[in-house]
């Protein structure tokens, strides 16, 4: 996602216990129980007693004539709870397995029926029941279909879909940068379906080359709008679930120069849309009359840099959904308009609004909106940007937000709160404490089972040396940066040790977080601390840390400059404060945006950084996609010099003979194209700069496909680091 720092995947692996605790939990409608997939069955647990009931057995999930039950990837129930839609046999589309097969289990008739019969295997996407439970709609091969569950009749609602004219889902860049995947919505009365149509016919293919899978090489095309290229035009249409002509909405402006990342039903006859301008610094909210197609603007939010969309936040219902209150008379909106990210309650006409989370702090994400009890539950950390805690604020705007997470649990928390606000699954960890999980009663935050009580477990722990140490440094520019450090085993402050920095540096991610996995290196074979390395990271301005708008937006039009200087000056201050750091042995590494930062640190600050390992880096900012790069850097036709100035390509000539560079890239990278590697290699050749280079044939941005790939990459990383930045004390 968003030029993600793939070393963070290692952190996600380390957080797997936390994730498994929450993954797949589906609350019952009344909020007093939850469902999950266990041992090829769907199980329901009641709360607070956690009594287990088999809701759907393996036998019920076994198709006629088959001996094994379906492997359930996910499921949903119809609104009346009498039918279940089962998703199975899935296939990956870019990042996630969003294609597969769907089956409907009728719990009254005890029948299991596949939907979409006759369609290609694993070709159905985003299937969902109509609100009345009588039909299922889905996308297959870029067209939308509705299937009558009583008769089995399949009605194509669109027929013009192609690889480039996309109905009901999205092109590569919408998916990558807006998290837009499911591109159609049932109307509340089950009569109509609203959908996106994306016209990628004018987007040029970027051609990747596969040299290994056949005697003759062949192209792998990806429709990919480079920065400076116009976006794919969109249309928003409404079609009857019985078929017929589509009614297109008359959205304002040029659809090839704007974006619509959000669309939902506001009522049975009206849609609500969010439209962004090309620079993504203005968001307009529109109502669309589905009968006439006429749109009306009712609310606007803007920023001198960029406006975040709902997909940028951790939200209870994902990027989908418009959060209505008071029977649809009001809605919730997130904005940084007062300098902090806050939640606002806005009237339906957009004329009045009230901030619900007043204060000098950021709302990190919404966990649950509990309108019945007048609360919004959200994550925040007013005092320490590396941590996350649960808070709640009243939806009527009265009183101050109150912290729910216990003060004794210092670190990072995750919650999944029931619809009635009475229960929650809770995970806790910090950089030195492995994940702990419990079921809670709210609002008193009390564990349902004494054996799972996290507060008691923490109190019972013996005091141990904290392996990961957090710190703050103030640079010579006056900027205070958060950081962490892992010192070598048997550390002696009278000796000098090499230091290895892990960096990212861009708006998509932070590296300094007080949670389990921080301080660990997923590329290094062995134990860095045991081998005698200091491992460290600092977080620069421009990362999404909850430190206010000014912190996050300082990087606007300055990627490759302000973030790189912060990282370099943070390292410089760290060196000055710690005599045990051997400044002749300083290494830095990063992936994707972190690879770009690694290159820029080597090239722009050669006096500080001696060794670098960069993976899948954007060497030339003019080579990346339009949505990401234009959001944070502007449009190159207007300020091309900023893109050039911040690109590692412009500084490659500064690599010194005394420095050591290892550059790694997958030739099948559909995200950060291998083109970046070849441009960088050419520039280094031009100036006779010697370096080490590794290309992984046909590997994607994550460089994990193929037998032996991860082991080879880890070995390469470790060997290069040890040779050019030797471990151990001096």
UniProtKB/TrEMBL annotation:
Molecular function terms from GO: dipeptidyl-peptidase activity; serine-type peptidase activity
Keyword vocabulary terms for this entry: Signal
Xref: SUPFAM superfamilies: alpha/beta-Hydrolases (SSF53474), DPP6 N-terminal domain-like (SSF82171)
Domain (Dipeptidylpeptidase IV N-terminal) ranges: 78-434
Residues covered by the Peptidase S9 prolyl oligopeptidase catalytic domain: 528-724
Domain of life, per lineage: Bacteria
Entry-linked Gene3D superfamilies: alpha/beta hydrolase (3.40.50.1820), Dipeptidylpeptidase IV, N-terminal domain (2.140.10.30)
UniProt-listed InterPro entries: AB_hydrolase_fold, Peptidase_S9_cat, Peptidase_S9B_N, Serine_Prot_S9B/DPPIV
GO BP term (any one): proteolysis
Keyword Calcium: no
Signal sequence, start to end: 1-19
Record flagged with keyword Signal: yes
Membrane spanning residue stretches: none
Name of the protein described by the UniProt record: S9 family peptidase
Natural source organism: Runella aurantiaca
């Amino acid at each position: 996602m968003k030029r993600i720092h793939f070393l963070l995947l290692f952190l996600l692996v380390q957080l797997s216990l936390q994730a498994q605790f929450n993954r797949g939990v589906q609350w019952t409608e009344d909020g007093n129980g939850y469902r999950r997939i266990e041992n090829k069955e769907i199980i329901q647990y009641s709360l607070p007693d956690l009594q287990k009931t088999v809701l759907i057995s393996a036998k019920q999930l076994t198709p006629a004539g088959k001996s094994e039950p379906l492997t359930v990837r996910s499921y949903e129930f119809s609104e009346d709870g009498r039918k279940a839609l089962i998703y199975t046999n899935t296939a990956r589309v870019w990042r996630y397995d969003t294609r597969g097969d769907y089956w409907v289990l009728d719990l009254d008739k005890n029948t299991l029926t596949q939907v979409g019969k006759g369609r290609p295997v694993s070709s159905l996407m985003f299937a969902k029941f109509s609100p009345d439970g009588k039909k299922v709609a889905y996308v297959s091969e870029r067209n939308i279909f509705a299937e009558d569950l009583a008769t089995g009749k399949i009605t194509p609602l669109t027929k013009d879909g192609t690889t480039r004219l996309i109905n009901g889902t999205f092109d590569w860049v919408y998916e990558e940068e807006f998290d837009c995947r499911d591109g159609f919505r049932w109307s509340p009365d089950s009569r109509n379906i609203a959908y996106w149509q994306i016209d990628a016919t004018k987007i040029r293919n970027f051609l990747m080359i596969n040299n290994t899978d056949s005697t003759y090489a062949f192209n792998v095309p990806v429709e990919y709008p480079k920065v400076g290229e116009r976006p794919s035009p969109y249309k928003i249409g409404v079609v009857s679930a019985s078929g017929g002509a589509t009614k297109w909405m008359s959205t304002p402006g040029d659809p090839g120069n704007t974006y619509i990342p959000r669309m939902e039903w506001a009522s049975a006859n009206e849609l609500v849309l969010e439209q962004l301008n090309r620079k993504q610094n203005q968001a307009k909210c529109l109502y669309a009359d589905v009968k006439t197609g006429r749109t009306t603007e009712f609310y606007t939010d803007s920023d001198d840099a960029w406006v975040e969309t709902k997909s940028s936040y951790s939200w209870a219902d994902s990027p989908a959904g418009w959060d209505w209150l008071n029977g649809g008379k009001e809605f919730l909106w997130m904005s940084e308009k007062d300098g902090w990210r806050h939640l606002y309650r806005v009237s339906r006409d957009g004329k009045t609004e009230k901030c619900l989370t007043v204060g000098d702090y950021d709302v990190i994400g919404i966990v649950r909106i509990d309108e019945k009890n007048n609360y919004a539950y959200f994550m925040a950390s007013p005092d320490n940007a590396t941590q996350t805690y649960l808070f709640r604020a009243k939806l009527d705007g009265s009183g101050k937000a109150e912290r729910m997470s216990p003060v004794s649990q210092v670190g990072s928390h995750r919650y999944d709160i029931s619809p009635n606000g009475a229960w929650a699954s809770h995970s806790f960890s910090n950089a030195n404490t492995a994940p702990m999980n419990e079921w809670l009663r709210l609002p008193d935050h009390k564990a349902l089972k004494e054996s799972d009580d996290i507060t008691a477990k923490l109190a019972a722990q013996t005091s141990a040396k904290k392996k990961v140490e957090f710190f703050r440094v103030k640079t010579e520019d006056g900027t205070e940066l958060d950081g962490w450090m892992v010192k070598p085993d048997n550390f002696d402050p009278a000796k000098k040790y090499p230091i290895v920095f892990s960096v990212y540096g861009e708006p998509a991610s932070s590296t300094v977080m007080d949670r389990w996995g921080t301080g660990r290196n997923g590329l290094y074979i062995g134990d860095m601390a045991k081998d005698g390395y200091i491992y460290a990271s600092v977080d620069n301005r421009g990362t999404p840390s909850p430190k206010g708008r000014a912190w996050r937006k300082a990087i606007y039009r300055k990627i490759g400059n302000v973030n790189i200087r912060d990282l370099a000056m943070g390292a410089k201050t760290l060196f000055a404060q710690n005599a045990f750091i051997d400044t002749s042995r300083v290494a830095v590494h990063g992936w994707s945006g972190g690879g770009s930062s690694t290159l820029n640190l080597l090239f722009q600050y050669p006096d500080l950084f001696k060794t670098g390992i960069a993976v899948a880096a954007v060497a030339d900012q003019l080579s990346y996609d339009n949505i990401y790069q234009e959001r944070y850097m502007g449009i190159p036709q207007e300020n091309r010099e900023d893109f050039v100035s911040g690109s590692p390509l412009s500084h490659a000539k500064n690599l010194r003979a005394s420095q050591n560079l290892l550059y790694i890239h997958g030739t099948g990278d559909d995200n950060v194209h291998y083109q970046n590697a070849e441009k960088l290699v050419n520039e280094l050749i031009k100036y006779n700069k010697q370096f080490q280079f590794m290309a992984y044939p046909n590997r994607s941005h994550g460089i994990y496909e193929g037998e032996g790939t991860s082991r080879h990459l880890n070995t390469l990383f470790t060997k290069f680091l040890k040779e050019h930045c030797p471990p151990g004390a001096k």
